[in-house]
Amino acid sequence: MSGQAAQWLCAFITTAFLQADGAVLEVSADTTNLDDLVANSEVVLLSFYADYCGWCRRLKPQFAKAEEKLRELNSKVLLAQTKDKALKKRFNVSMVPAVWLFVNGKPMYRHWAWEYDDVFDFAHSFDTMSQPAGFIFRSYIWLRSLYRFGIKAVFKSLKMEADHPVQVYAPYMLLPMLLFLLIMLLVSVVLIYVQIIQICRARRRFMELKKAA
């Protein structure tokens, strides 16, 4: 058996064992080759956490619940977690919790996660949606999660309770706002294009008149 095949088999057995035991795969620079792990999994969500972090302790059971549900659905998405300082340094993770997305062995971007559905909806979309619908849906989930992770905390500091209208309806406005911004961007591009065409035509006419004179 070649060295590469042995590494792949080791990663597969470790993942299968931990998942069968009902636990989220724990990644460590000392015991797990992260490069092999993400290379042999189409999609990986890696959660960086710390034992002292209250938000991490809040997310950890939600992350495990999402992993269990995805496993029941035979998802192609692998959920893993790490508190390894060397891996945090490698990916410049200075704040936790931080959930990194890997696709086809490559790190893509950070996903904000706060609730169970922030993790499950985002991950499960890789099983149920193709591009561009998957990209649009995950962008919405990313914004919704960011709202919960950061903006909601600001609302709370402003003494806006959970039943405040802003708190209740703001998440449902994220997707319409995103679509509105995309439409406005497209309209702006079209208007600029039309303006450039008009300027070019006016310049061409001016040059023709100048030559005729």
Automatic annotation (TrEMBL):
TM spans (from-to): 169-194
Pfam families: Thioredoxin
Keyword Transmembrane helix: yes
Signal peptide segment: 1-20
Keywords assigned by UniProt, alphabetized: Membrane, Signal, Transmembrane, Transmembrane helix
Classification via PROSITE patterns: THIOREDOXIN_1, THIOREDOXIN_2
Source superkingdom: Eukaryota
Domain Thioredoxin residue range list: 3-128
UniProt xrefs under InterPro entries: ERP44, Thioredoxin-like_sf, Thioredoxin_CS, Thioredoxin_domain
Keyword match Mitochondrion: no
Protein name listed in UniProt: Thioredoxin domain-containing protein
